[in-house]
């Protein structure tokens, strides 16, 4: 702990929950749904009696996991009493109590965990990755998603990222016809250098009955993996596809929690898994999923939702300290998709990677004016 700091400094005195609306720089189309001009989100700010500030972020998507309004209410109405007046050192006890206080709302719980760990890291003078077990990698290969319905705009986006060193490109498929997807893949493959890797994400966009023959066509592009080809509950079809194809099948929507990761191993419904703080409720649960997968030889990928910067920083600390999340990560939305950067200093995405911040805690600071500019409602 730095000179002068005491555990008393970690008593949370104030909790502010801000419902935001992020403007978006580009349209996004996914098998599961479309996003156009803007996206709601939640920013959490905890202030201790000693004046330390901890930041958290919930990034739900209504068609995927939950709503921003519901997660803001979970924090404001149901979780506030567990936090205010308590020490951030009690983070595990608080998270256990949160699971009993409100079912689901993993995004709110992830935000709460982030803010408490940010406070602990700042009090101890160490990055969150140190708290999470120690740093195993400081640079995380960046994957960007090709998901704009304007494919020409997407190719410009890809060329710009190529120039920055990005080598992992995840193409969102399943929202157009199969033939149109094959044309997009051909055109993308033509602009990528030999050391770049294509990955394909259907976001549940295929029907199970004819998925296999479509995915066999996709294997011609040698994708690193094919993500969530069918609906999340079609786990038997996922298992069939994983067994039938040479290309690894990666579970995203079919694996939200450690319990579902156990099912993934038991039923063999995926060869790899996307770990997202917003699906499972934070870094601790993400590490459980990665460990369950790792014990079965299943590697993990660092997935994200529409995250504005605080959540991405938490994801970086998670991947930086988790050996089995070894397939890269998509920590690019704050820089390239969301139209307002709420971080005082944007995340460093140089050389085709996201990089672990050096400063204590999450290592990011929120710009108050930028946050005000996207605030819909602030509580507390
Ligand atoms: Mg996905």
Please provide a written account of the structure.
The chain has 380 residues and is α/β, with parallel strands linked by helices. The radius of gyration is 20 Å and the shape is globular. Strand 2 and strand 3 form a beta hairpin. The strands form 4 sheets. The protein has a 7-stranded parallel beta sheet with strand order 7-8-9-10-11-12-13. It has 2 domains: 134 residues, Enolase-like, domain 1 (2-Layer Sandwich), CATH 3.30.390; 226 residues, Alpha-Beta Barrel (TIM Barrel). It is built from 14 helices and 15 strands. The two termini are 28 Å apart. Helix 1 packs across helix 2. Bound molecules: magnesium ion (MG). The site of magnesium ion (MG) has 7 residues, from loops.
In summary, what is this structure?
The protein has 380 residues and is α/β, with parallel strands linked by helices. The chain has helices at residues 68-83, 91-101, 106-124, 128-131, 151-164, 178-191, 211-218, 235-244, 258-267, 277-280, 283-295, 310-320, 333-336, 368-373; strands at residues 12-23, 28-30, 33-35, 38-48, 53-58, 139-141, 143-146, 168-172, 197-201, 226-227, 249-251, 272-275, 300-302, 353-355, 375-379.
């Amino acid at each position: 702990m730095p000179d002068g700091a005491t555990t008393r400094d970690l008593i949370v005195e104030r909790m502010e929950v801000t419902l935001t609306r992020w403007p978006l720089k580009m349209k996004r189309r996914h098998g599961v749904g479309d996003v156009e001009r803007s996206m709601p989100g939640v920013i959490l700010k905890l202030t201790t009696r000693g004046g330390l500030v901890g930041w958290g972020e919930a990034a739900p998507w209504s068609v995927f996991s939950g709503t921003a309004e519901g997660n803001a209410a979970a924090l404001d109405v149901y979780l506030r009493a567990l936090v205010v007046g308590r020490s951030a050192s009690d983070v595990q006890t608080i998270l256990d109590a949160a699971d009993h206080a409100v079912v689901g709302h993993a995004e709110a719980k992830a935000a709460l965990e982030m803010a408490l760990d940010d406070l602990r890291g700042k009090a101890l003078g160490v990055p969150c990755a140190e708290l999470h077990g120690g740093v195993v990698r400081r640079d995380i290969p960046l994957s960007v998603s090709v998901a704009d319905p304007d494919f020409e705009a997407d190719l410009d986006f890809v060329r710009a990222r190529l120039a920055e060193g990005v080598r992992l490109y995840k193409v969102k498929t399943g929202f157009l016809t199969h033939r149109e997807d094959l044309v997009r893949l051909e055109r993308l493959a033509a602009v990528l250098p030999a050391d770049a890797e294509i990955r394909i994400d259907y976001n549940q966009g295929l029907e199970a009955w004819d998925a296999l023959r479509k995915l066999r066509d996709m294997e011609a592009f040698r994708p690193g993996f094919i993500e969530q080809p069918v609906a999340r509950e079609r786990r038997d079809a996922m298992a069939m596809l994983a067994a039938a194809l040479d290309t690894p099948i990666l579970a995203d929507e079919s694996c939200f929690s450690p319990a579902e990761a156990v099912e993934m191993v038991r039923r063999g419904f995926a060869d790899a898994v996307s770990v997202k703080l917003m699906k499972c409720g934070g870094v601790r649960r993400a590490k459980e999923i990665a460990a369950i997968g790792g014990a079965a030889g299943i590697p993990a990928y660092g997935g994200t939702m529409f995250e504005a910067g605080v959540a991405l920083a938490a994801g970086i600390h998670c991947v930086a300290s988790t050996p089995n999340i070894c397939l890269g990560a998509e920590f690019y939305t704050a820089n390239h998709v969301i139209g307002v950067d709420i971080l005082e200093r944007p995340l460093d995405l140089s050389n085709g990677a996201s990089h672990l911040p050096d400063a204590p805690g999450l290592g990011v600071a929120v710009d108050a004016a930028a946050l005000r500019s996207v605030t819909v409602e602030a509580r507390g």
